[in-house]
Design brief:
single chain, alpha/beta, Rossmann fold, Glutathione S-transferase Yfyf (Class Pi), Chain A, domain 2, 2 domains, six-stranded antiparallel sheet, 8 helices
Amino acid sequence: MPVAIDRLTLTQFRNHAATRLDGTGKLNLLFGENGAGKTNVLEAISLLAPGRGLRRAALADIPRSTSGEGFGVSAMINCADGREPVQIGTGSEAQRPGRRLVHVNGAASPANALGEWLGLSWLTPAMDRLFMDSAGARRRYLDRLALALDPGHAGQAARYDNALRERNRLLSDEAEPDPDWLEAIEAQMAECGSALSRTRAALVDALGTALDRLPDQPFARPTLTYHAGGPLARDELADALRASRRQDRAARRTLTGPHRDELEVRMASKAMPASECSTGEQKAMLIAITLAHAELAAGERPRILLLDEVAAHLDPLRREALFERLRAGTTQVWMTGTERAPFAAIGNQAATWKITQGEARRAS
């Protein structure tokens, strides 16, 4: 599979006034001091997919504070099926800082169209407490993994969330809701919600199969269980929503559906919930899931994996095991670190840049 991003350009993005990275490779390393702007580059790449990126930041907070302008991120993408490279980009304008702009080969496109060109996933230090976080955080994590494999997943999630908000609004009104309008909303929730849950369930099954092929060491192998918040079949979900109207109206919110889904993670060797494992074990399981996800087929779209400070807290054995898996895979990888030393094992294979105060310099 060809290198996904061949050229990357950042304009007025965080502390990067104008940064261009050429000559990328399958493995790419950004190193520099804390606050230099390494993670900003990864965040910029993450915005080349639908969604809010790895920091979930508001668009208005992204442009350089001194620029008074919007921001821009663009990349030349090599297609996996041999077609001509595609230029994709996203950004904002100063006049409308909260409105996201997306272009594909110069033509304006909806944000969801970005998912047709790249499959993106990432692992950041902020995710280290995923197993201790809320069920909602784990659902968002699942959805991001699903989106890297199925570009239509974001649309299903958005339509379901819109219908869910409207149903909750109707249930919260003092007046009795119009049953015909409620029926129409529930029909949309059932159609999109069924697709949403079935995709999540299939993803967890596929991840489980990939994880079964991983040894318990050097990374702790997790087992994943998907708990649906309602029936997976469309008609059954519609019936469940209809039957729960009285109960939901009393609660003033919808109590059945994929917005109640949960991902359960346990450490296989100890049969222990991930939330009760040590910090190191949780990190190892998260890396194992990331590696398993990188193995899953992505059709004709090139894949990108963003790893922020991933080597900092790994011992040499686990670092070498991680690098070996990354070398063997087909995914383009972008990594950050404060120093080059932890990446010495791949130093001669990675395209490397030193990041200093929002500027990138190619390192030999």
